[in-house]
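Hi support team,

I'm opening this ticket because the web form for multi-chain structure prediction keeps timing out on my end. I have pasted the exact lines I submitted so you can reproduce it. The total is 784 residues across two entries, so I didn't expect it to be a heavy job. Is there a limit I'm missing, or should I split the entries? Thanks in advance, R.K.
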Amino acid sequence: MIQLDHVHKQYGSKKAVNDIHLTIPSGKIFGFLGPNGAGKSTTIKMVTGILPIDSGSITINGKDISTNTIAAKHEFGYVPDSPDLFLRLNGIDYLHFIGDIYGISADDRTARIEEYANMFSIYEALSDQIKTYSHGMRQKLFITGMLVQQPSVWILDEPMTGLDPKSSYQLKELMRQHTAKGNTVFFSSHVLEVVEQLCDEVAIIRKGELLFHGTLPKMREKFHSDESLEHIFLELTQDA
Amino acid sequence: MHKPIRALIRIQLKMQYHNVFKKPSVIIGFVFGLLGILFLGLMLGGFVLQVIDLIYTMLEPSGNSDIILGSLFLMNFIVVLLLSLTLIMNGFYFTEDITSFLHFPVHSYQLLIAKSVNPLVYVYLVTAATYFPVSMYYGVLSGAGIVYSIFALLLFFVIPIIPYSLASVIVMFAMQFVNKGKNKDRSKVIGGILGFILLILLNIVLRLQHDPEKVAETIASSAEGGGMLQMATMYYPPAWLMTNQLTTDSLWMRLLYLIIVLVIALVSFWLFYAASQKLYLKGALGLNTGSGKQFNGKGLYRKQTSVVHAYRKKEIQTIFRTPTFFLQCVAGTLIMPALLVVIVFMGDFTSAASLAKSLDGSGLYVAILAVNILTIGLNPVSIVSFSKDGHSWEAHLFLPLKMWQIVLAKLQAAFLINLLPITVMFLVAVFVLQLTIWQAMLWLFLALLVNAAVTIIGMLSDLFYPKLGWSEETELFQNRLASLIAIVLSVGSLGILIALLLVLNMQMFVSLLFTVLYISLLVAALLYTVSRLLRSANRTTLTK
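Hello R.K., no limit was hit. The queue was backed up. Here is the completed structure from your submission:
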């Protein structure tokens, strides 16, 4: 479970995130939506400890990211929106690096690397440097890294970008299986169809403010609309 | 036809020089760099002008003094040719942005003219630094007038075109074959190592010719037969033409020589154009860093290791696999030991070994310490400790890593890599200087102490002025204030140690104890400052 308690972030005079109070429950796939510059990435970066929080607090499975940082970081796996990290490592070196950082045993990580690297069709490229990978392959490698780690909370920033249809389908299946075991998936996306077919709950953010939080049926009920999520989203964020 | 060239040149200049002089750190670095060049220029300039004076006095009576200009043009040709080979290889093939231009509807020659702007700025600066002082001094010696100066200025603009175009054609021709292997990284490393070898060879040549009178005598004696200019410029006729252009009395002949030189420059430009159109894409397309090999399961199973071990391994892998880091931080560290060997063998010492033996206990101790400081006084790995992570630094913020783990692993990696020059110097000490086993052990111990101090100094310097927002690794080794701070801190703190040892003139064992105590205190103070800086730094950007 992720708990954001009146979180606030400001850049100069601009309020990037304004008093967001949100609970992302266990056992749910949670979609985080908003137009470009709405504050999605800033929120995710605060949740993952990349950005300091101005005021408020964030806990992951009850562990505060600001005060109990390392313990909180062990609770989640994160796939960033631009996976341009550790470019000079080989794919296999990166996965072992992640395994060592998160203390995954040699047997467990070997089995997981084999399973997920094959699932996402990157196994044969594991001896190449990440620098040579396409965006989609980098995305798949970082997802594989998270799966090697097997944390209870998944945080994914635009995870479908660059993925081929097969990989995209497999990731969605993995998300469902993960939450079915009582774990949490928190992801941001621009692909509203994916959010519509996958999410148990959504939150919409605009100009740093939370516009809506709840299930899709609740959203339709609230906005008296039988239209698609895309239609509601466009209406809600039209002057963004 | 010229519109795309103009647009491409504009974008190249903006990318390279935009914002360069807006940061105070860059301005300070630039001023220090300029002062350094000026100092070096004055040191070398005096020597060169002295040689010219002597040669002119010796050769003027026999009418062979124009060899000075001939040699100048020949030297400019060689320097520009060698410099251009590296600049062109990097600029045309190895920069990361080259693929961003390949899909534009522009001809290869248009792209390469734009890509030539930066290399040509360097080439013209280097040419100006040697050409103007020598040609103007020759003008003064020969009592030449204003016409000489005007033609000399005109020739300045032509001089680099011929060697630059020739270098372009050579590189474009060679890169067709290099591209067969399609490995950019390997080509970069080979090119870089060849550059280092060239630097050491150049140093050997300079060391062999360090007496102005001897140099002048050699040249004068070989000029006795006359026709020295033709001989010297036999392999590069434009040097002969340019020399005559400046020294002939008839204005018409001068104009004729100028026209011939201009025609040669145009022909060389045409060669550049033709090679660009015919050869460039064959070398540039498909050049990448991939191995092309399929993963065969080797290394799939690995033992679980500690966080610090895993991080240290990642650091070392990154340095060895990034050509720029490898060249600067690994291959580059061997230059100083190599140069020192050159100095020892080519210098005035008849036998370094006998010199070592002639020093008494404390003298030898200080000498060993000083040589160690001189050869490993800077640890380039630690100067880019944090900066080399670039955008990947963000990962340190979401991974469950403690700052002490990162610092320890980075220090260990930097310390270990710097053991390479230490090993080389140790072997030199044992086999060349023929130190006794105890002296050799002392050498090694002091080298390790110095290494510990300079490794932390490097990290501290990087923390003072980190640079995470780079787009090319080479930016981390150019005009950085962090390098300057590291030099100042190393020279300052270890220089004080040497001075204290010299003043106190203690027994060797006491000196050793004193050094251990001094460096331990220095290391403790440096580590404390590092931890304070890290605590006060913004975690995202590492800025205070």
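A quick check on our side: DSSP finds nine helices and ten strands in chain A. Let us know if the file doesn't open in your viewer.
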